[in-house]
Design a protein that fits this description.
With 436 residues, this protein is α+β, with helices and mostly antiparallel strands. It contains 4 helices and 16 strands. Strand 8 and strand 9 form a beta hairpin.
Amino acid sequence: MMKHRFILSLWLLVTLACVTANAQRRTNVRSTQQDTTQLVRNYMDSLRVYKAQIDSLSQANAALESAHYNGKLYKLFVPATFYHSAAKRKLSLNTLFTDGEAGSAVDNALMGIYLRRPDLLMNSENQLLAAGTIRNDVDVAQTQNVELTEQVAPIPEDTPEAPLETEVLITKPNFWTFKGDYYLQFLQNYITTNWHKGGESNYSMLASLTLEANYNNKQKVKWDNKLEMKLGFQTSRSDTVHKFKANNDLLRLTSKLGLQAHKKWYYTLQLLAYTQFTRGLKSNDPFIYSDFFSPFDLNLGLGMDYTVETKNKRLTGNINISPLSYNFRYVGRLGLATRYGLKEDKHTMHDIGSQLTVDLTWKLAEQVTWKTRLYGYTSYKRALVEWENTLELKVSKYITTNIYVYPRFDDSGARDSDLGYWQFMEYCSLGFNYSF
């Protein structure tokens, strides 16, 4: 009995295992069939998509070959350019265009570039029109005739050339500089005889000429020469003795030889000589107060000279100090001897002393220039100080106004009851000026 139960149980287990295995096999087969069906379906969908793309490309290719796209696609391949048709198609109310779908497609593509990447635009249609079209006057193809050789000719050896004959021109440096200044000034004052404040009419004229010749070898030696000439006349109704008389008279030569000591300092030997051109007179007075070589002064000084020159060259000039100076005075008219510090009936006078000369030009503004000269000499018995100041106002290139102020101290002559040994001269004039 037990044996039969065991056999029955074993049979049931085997049967159950077979049924389970068969069911599992059927499930796997069904799953495999489903996966295969889905794969085939996906493959067919891909083929349909590819077919649609190929058909689209085929249609596009056919359209490219048709007359609708002829001459329109070049806009997509040339450097990015702004064409008017793209903007016109978007902004125009008219929807009828003669270029059809081809032109619309090209304009849409261009508009996408204009809106998304405006930085790529290199040209505009206006620039292309201004540049012009492609030349169409050359119809024949140009060919080049090239001749080929079997062997290249040997390169000839370089032969030494004869040296060229060159002329060396040596120019001698010119260390001289020349310059000058000339002006002619006038002054007129008219007053009627019944003028309530009195006074008298007068006319005056002043001419001045300054010449300079300077030598400088840019090493050690310097030689400066300046000749100054001034002569002015005036007339007045009240003077019944003289028709005209001099009111400004100067003839002066300054010569200075220098040897450089250090930078702007020079050891110098200075020669200063001055007199006047004509007689010096006063109104209604026949007495002659001065004349040519009456007096005549010559001063020879040994000392040092300093050159003044600012960076912008607005202030230029020099300062000369001569601790050892010899002065010679000559008076041709004996009647003027005592007037100029000489002994009676003597024509000459000699003395030794020291002198100082300051000669500066200051350009205050473009049209304003101040020229000043300070000269001092002392023999430790007598003293002479002259300070000449000229303020030049340039009206135009050739018209100037001069204001001249000249104080002077000289204790070698007679003492004035009011001014002592001081003397003073001043004038203001307008006239022609020329520099060269």
